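Researcher: I need the complex structure. Ligand is HDE. Inputs:
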Amino acid sequence: MPPRKSPSKPNPPLPSKNEQLEPYRMHQEDTVLTTDQGIPISETDNSLKAGLRGPTLLEDFHFREKMMRFDHERIPERAVHARGAGAHGYFQVYESLERYTQARFLTDPSLKTPVFVRFSTVGGSRGSADTVRDVRGFATKFYTPEGNYDLVGNNMPVFFIQDGIKFPDFVHSVKPEPHNEIPQASSAHDSLWDFVSLVPETAHMVMWLMSDRAIPRSFRHMEGFGVHTYRLVNAKGKATLVKFHWKPVLGTHSLVWDEAQKVSGKDPDFHRRDLWDTIESGNFPEYELGLQLIPEGDELKYGFDLLDATKLLPEELVPVQKVGKLVLDRNPDNFFAETEQVAFCVSNVVPGIDFTNDPLLQARIFSYLDTQLTRLGGPNFAELPINKPVCPVHNHQQDGFGRQAINTSRANYHPNSLGGGCPVLANPKSAFVHRQERVEGHKIRARSGSFADHFSQATLFYNSLSKPEREHLVAALEFEVSKVEREEIRERVVNKVLVNIDRDLAVRVANAVGVAPPKLGKQPESKPVSKLTASPALSQLNTPHDSILTRKVAVLVADGFAGRELAQVRKTLEGMGAILEVVGPTLGPVASADGGEEKPLRTYQTASSVLYDAVYVPGGERSVATLKKVPLAVDFVREAYVHCKALALSGAATSMLDAAGFSTPMAKGLDDSLGVIRSAKNETRGFGQMFAKAIAAHRHWAREAPGPA
Ligand code: HDE
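Model: Output:
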C-alpha cells in the first residue's frame, strides 16, 4: 500500500467505542507523525548526516529517540505462563447470589461487568508453540464497581504441590534445564520426572498433565478452575466455602498427541489464532461460571482436606451450580499494551470474596503482586490502562517509576486535616474487611496430616476416564518417561509413583520405558479415602457433543470436483455454524465439473489436516484422480483418519480412503461407520446431516490404532 499523504490539517482522533471507559485507547487514523514530545516529523527514513555519505550526527534527536525506544522495547517475560493470548468481554450473573456474597458483580443481574481474560501455557517462553503438552492458564480480571477482582485459574482443578514454598522447586524442574536450556515448553525431560518421582504430592496433577486435558482443542473448548477453596461472604458476614469453575458452552474437547505435535510446527499460533478468528467472526466464546458451595466447617467432611490444592471436590458429591455467563466479544487492539501488560494478582479480591488458609493460595497472594515489580518495572503497574480499575482509586500511595496520577492534595498521609481528612475511610459495610477467623496453633514448619494422601484421587481420576482417554494417558506417560535419560528416575516414577495409582498402569509404563515392572503383591502406599470410585464428570466423553459451531472443515478440491454437491453440503454445515475452507492446488480458481468454480483459501502446501476438525472430499472423477496423485492431499485423508476426525467422502472420493491406506468395505448407498461418511453416489440425501453429526461427536475413537496414535 502506498504511504498515505499527510493531511493538510490534522483531524481529531476518531471516537473510540469505549471512549468513556478507555480514553487512553489511541487511534492513528488521520494523524501526523510526531516525536514522543509531539513535535511533527516529516522525514523518518534517513538519519541526519554530515554530508550525504558522512557520519550520523548526535544532534539527530529524532533518530536517537526512535532507536532508544526500540532498544528498550522488551520487558521480562512472565516467570511462568509467558505464552498467552487475551480477550475482552463481559460477565453477567443470572440471579442474585446475595445469599452467599455481597460482591456486586455477583448480586446484580443487570450488571455487565467488563472483563479481560488471558489464556496461557505454563512452561514455554513467550514465543513457544500453543499446542504443547501443558497446563493452560485461565485468568480473568473483572473490572467491578467495587474494584478489580482477579480469578487466576487453570484448566485443571488441582495443582502439583501443596505448599507454595515448593513452587520455585517445581517450576525449576519443569522449565528447560539450566545447563543447556533444553527442552523448550516440554515436561518430557529428566529434571521434571526426577522431581515428580521424589515428591509424591505431584501424582494427581501429573495424571491430569498426562491426560487429554493438557492438549486442548482450543481455549474455547477447555474448562477453567479456581483450584483453591475460596470463601464467599454475604452482607451479614456469613461465609460459605466455594470452588470456582468455568464451563465452556461448546464442551471440553482435546487434540490427540500426534496431532498436537504436528500443529506446533504447522501453526505454532494455533490457539491464539483460533481465539482471535472466532472473536473477529462474531462467534464469541462463552463460558458459564460454576460454583461448588460448601458450608463452613465441612472442610474435612469429604475424606480429604479442602485446603489441599492437590484434591478436587467431585461434582457428584457437591454439584456445580451454574450462576452466570462470561462472553469474550472483543480482541485486544494491542498485544503488548493489553495481553502482555495485564497483571493478574491473586490478592485482588472485592468485598464478598475472601481467601482460605490453603498454603498454596497464601503463597500466591504474595507472589503475583511481587512478580509484577520486576516484570512491569516498578510499583505503578496498577495504573497501566489494562490494569486500571473502572471505579475511582484514592489513597496516599505515591511516586515510584512511571507514576501516572497527579494527586493535587497537600495531604499525602492519614490521618490528615490539611486535606479535609480525605480520602476518608470507607464504611466497613461496603469495604473489604478480612473475615474474622479464629486461628490458633504453634509456629511450625510442617504439613498437616490431613494432606497426607497423595494417590487416591490420582486413582479416582484414572478410573473416571473412558477407555480411549485412559489409553491416551498411558501413551503420554510412555512418551514422557521414555524421554528421561536416567534409568533410576524412570524406575522411581514406576515404583514410587505409578504403582500407587494403578498397578497395571505401572506395569505398562515399566515395560515401555525399559525398567523392571513392580513386583506382584506390592501394596499401594495409601488407601482410598472416599467411597467414590469414579467421577463421571471428569471424563471429557461426558461433555456436550451437540454442536458443530465454529468447527473447521477442510474441503479438498481440484479441477472437476462436484460443485453442486459441495454447495449442498456447505449449506447444511454452514447453516449449523461450521466453517468450511476450500483447499486447492493453488489459490487460483478451481473449476467444478458442473460449470462453477471455487477460489481456494488455502493450498495443500499451506494447510494440513491437523489444522481442521474434519475433512470433506467432494466427488468428481477428475478432481479425485488429481488429488490421489498429490501426496499432501492424500496425507489430509490419512491423518484425518488416524486422528479419528469426521471424514466425508462422496462418489469417486470414496476411493481416497484406499489411497490413504485404509481399505474398509463399504455399504451400498450411505455408509457412516466410525465417523467416516461415504456415499457411493455424489452426495445423497442425509449425507451432510450425517457428516454434521460425526463432526459434533468430535472424534471417533473406535478408529484409533492400538498404541500411541
Ligand atoms: Fe501462578 N503465577 N503460581 N498458578 N499463575 C504466575 O504471576 C505462582 C498457580 C496462574 O495470564 C506468576 O503474573 C505461585 C496455581 C496463571 O498473567 C507468578 C504458585 C494456579 C498465571 C505465579 C502458583 C496458577 C500465573 C507469573 C504456587 C491455578 C498467568 C507471572 C503457590 C489456580 C496469569 C505472574 C497471566 C502466573 C506464581 C500456582 C495460575 C510467578 C507462587 C495453583 C493462570 O506470580
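Model: Summary of the prediction. The domain at 49-383 is CATH 2.40.180.10 (Catalase HpII,  Chain A, domain 1).
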